[in-house]
UniProtKB/TrEMBL annotation, chain A:
It is an enzyme of class 1 (oxidoreductase). Residues 286-398 form the Moybdenum cofactor oxidoreductase dimerisation domain. Residues 46-89 are annotated as: Disordered. Its EC number is 1.8.2.1. This is Sulfite dehydrogenase. One of its GO terms (molecular function) is sulfite dehydrogenase activity. GO terms for biological process: sulfur compound metabolic process. Residues 106-264 form the Oxidoreductase molybdopterin-binding domain. Residues 1-38 form the signal peptide. Gene3D superfamilies: 2.60.40.650, Oxidoreductase, molybdopterin-binding domain. Its cofactor is Mo-molybdopterin. InterPro entries: Ig_E-set, MoCF_OxRdtse_dimer, Mopterin_OxRdtase_euk, OxRdtase_Mopterin-bd_dom, OxRdtase_Mopterin-bd_sf, Sulfite_DH_SoxC.
């Protein structure tokens, strides 16, 4: 959950913290792009190359070492001082380009020399071992497509919010690496081991405890994302991948795994990533509940009368998307949307629904049912089940978009208190 | 053979590969993700880790006290260290003041469950987590720079400021894990397993 914005830093007194400095560095890092436009043209106007009247009459540039986006397309993430959000409204299918994958970390992105990086596995094992990156790449590899989502991925509050603003802390990649069970077999795991601690080599030395069943099920240690080495922001050179589990547990820059009889109760699994349920605080919510959002049409897009293909993504941390329903009458009636095949387990699933818009003001919504039979709730249902002090973790309410008579699309922020 | 011919010949191969990939998808859905060939008992990759290597990284502390190092600390020393190393982000006394947004979280508050903001006193279920977290990640501008004695002392100060331990308590590996946190009784494990219930 993000509460601190850049504006808050200005109010900080006393010595300058590294967080503040880091925020400054991040701001500086995005400046070149912004200033490139700001100096020469208005921010809304893209910088375009000289365009010939007829491109068939001019030979274009030749091949280069790296491809680049069309200058007409400028999807960008939205950074704060602690995270950066995926522009879901700019994407047309479910693989997130690696440079648009959301980012969240607790002490910056470390620079790690892959030749020196090692993974230690110890604790309740037969043989404590260290593996170099080269060792890890020698084991049988597996490729899997799944989403990662931050457990604090819910924002609301005003109508002028994009899908990126509301829940841009989810992205999807095709990950490649070794099954964690393969490495566990290599070291030999004691029957007493019920949990394992995963630890990163960032300046937060991030740790989370994970139930051992996940290791025998589908946990992976991955070194590739969409075919190439994973990005530094995603844990280069290796990260833990726990399909369907909250993002924070997918430890990046992984350096150590310790097998244990009991959980460690780390800071992130006690004082963070926990949330009020009535008069109690719920902890160890690992799986992300099923969720969906319409990404087109959404704010700040506009629609025209006639056929509109409503599009969006749906996912569940507990398995496959069973169905997605769309309502174009503010939730009175629901219709089945088409799901783009293949529908993968614990993966963003693209849905589409054709709507003949007559020009009336209305609201459009989507709701997903996953293969366990769980139907995505409304915010009111979540509040009824958990109490009105919901907090910001594990929130998956239905998102409604307001369609105005003139085709303007606005988010419908809801309040429960 | 010129370039164009190579390209034309390559196309059917690519199409064939693409259709093979598609054909594998239903298989993947039914089978767990395992490799295709019979495995050896061990691959023999990697090497044994030495006791020194493990000790250098094994800094975690469990709620039962496992992992707490030698050393000790007290509230008085902790108060001084807090002022020098923590107050710049967490406030002079760790409390949230109206209209002031701290760069770090507020750490001190009363211990009632309904109080805001979330602090060590009203939201942290285990005292050992304080030691573990501070030693690995704090202070934010110099992570990993505190000695074990310093971490014990700051832990003592923060627990005392939250009215959980008395001012004369000296914390060490023998007693820190025995400190009962007020928020412990509030925490429940998630028992949801999917299915239609909204919970």
């Amino acid at each position: 959950m993000e509460k601190r914005g850049n504006k808050d830093q200005k109010k900080a007194t006393g010595k300058i913290s590294r967080r503040t400095l880091l925020g400054g560095v991040l701001a500086a890092a995005v400046l070149p792009v912004q200033s490139l436009f700001a100096d020469e043209v208005q921010p809304e106007t893209p910088v375009l190359p000289e365009i010939a009247d007829d491109p068939t009459k001019i030979v274009g540039p030749g091949p280069g070492p790296l491809g680049k986006r069309s200058p007409f397309e400028q999807p960008v993430r939205k950074p704060s001082d602690i995270s950066s959000r995926t522009p879901l409204q700019d994407l047309h299918s479910t693989i997130t380009p690696a440079d648009l994958h959301f980012e969240r970390h607790h002490a910056g992105v470390p620079t790690i020399d892959p030749a020196k990086h090692e993974l230690l596995i110890h604790g309740l094992v037969d043989n404590p071992m260290k593996f170099t990156l080269a060792d890890i790449k020698r084991f049988p590899a597996v490729t899997r497509t799944c989403f990662i989502e931050c457990a604090g991925n819910f924002r609301t509050g005003k109508a002028e919010m994009t899908p990126q603003d509301i829940l841009g802390l989810t992205s999807q990649s095709e990950w490649t690496g070794v099954m964690l069970s393969t490495l566990f077999n290599e070291v030999g795991i004691s029957d007493k081991a019920k949990w394992f601690l995963a630890e990163g080599s960032d300046a937060a030395i991030m740790t989370r405890t994970i139930p051992i069943a996940k290791a025998w099920d589908d946990a992976m240690i991955v070194y590739a994302q969409n075919g190439e080495a994973i990005r530094p922001e995603q844990g280069y050179p290796i990260r833990l991948l726990l399909p369907g589990f909250e993002g924070n547990m997918n430890i990046k820059w992984l350096r150590r795994i310790e097998l244990s009889e009991e959980p460690y109760m780390t800071r992130e699994e006690t004082s963070k990533y926990t949330y009020p349920v009535k008069d109690k605080i719920r902890m160890f919510s690992f799986e992300l509940d099923a969720r969906s959002i319409i990404t087109y049409p959404s704010y700040p897009q506009k629609v025209n009368k006639g056929w509109v293909e409503i599009r969006g993504i749906a996912w569940s941390g507990r398995g496959k998307v069973e169905k997605v329903e769309v309502s174009t009458d503010a939730g009175k009636t629901w219709q089945l949307a088409n799901l783009q095949e293949p529908v993968l387990s614990k993966a963003h699933t693209y849905f589409r629904y054709l709507w003949d818009w007559k020009g009336e003001a209305t609201e459009i919504l989507s709701r997903v049912t996953d293969e366990t039979g769980y139907l995505q709730p409304t915010l009111a249902q979540l509040a009824e089940a958990r109490g009105v002090n919901l907090g910001g973790y594990h929130m998956n309410p239905i998102t409604a978009w307001q369609i105005k008579n003139d085709g303007t699309v606005l988010f419908k922020p809801e309040t429960i208190k | 053979m010129n370039k164009k011919t190579v390209l034309i010949l390559a196309c059917p191969v690519m199409l064939l590969l693409m259709s093979l990939k598609t054909a594998f998808i239903p298989l993947q859905g039914k089978k767990p993700l395992t490799d295709s060939l019979k495995r050896p008992a061990k691959f023999g990759f990697g090497r044994p880790a030495t006791a020194q290597e493990i000790a250098a990284w094994d800094i975690d502390v469990r709620p039962d006290g496992k992992g707490l190092p030698a050393g000790q600390g007290d509230v008085k020393k902790g108060k001084l260290l807090y002022a020098q190393k923590c107050a710049m982000c967490h406030g002079v006394d760790g409390t949230e003041k109206p209209g002031v947004k701290l760069p770090g979280n507020a750490l001190v508050g009363d211990t009632s469950a309904t109080s805001k903001p979330k602090t060590i006193g009203n939201y942290w279920p285990y005292a050992t987590t304080l030691f573990d977290y501070m030693r690995r990640a704090m202070p934010y501008n110099l992570p990993g720079s505190l000695s074990n004695d310093e971490v014990y002392s700051i832990t003592a100060y923060l627990l005392n400021a939250n009215k959980i331990i008395k001012a004369d308590v000296v914390l060490d590996a023998k007693n820190l894990y025995k400190v009962v946190m007020p928020a412990k009784k509030l925490f429940i494990m998630d028992d949801r397993k999917g299915g239609p219930e909204i919970k």
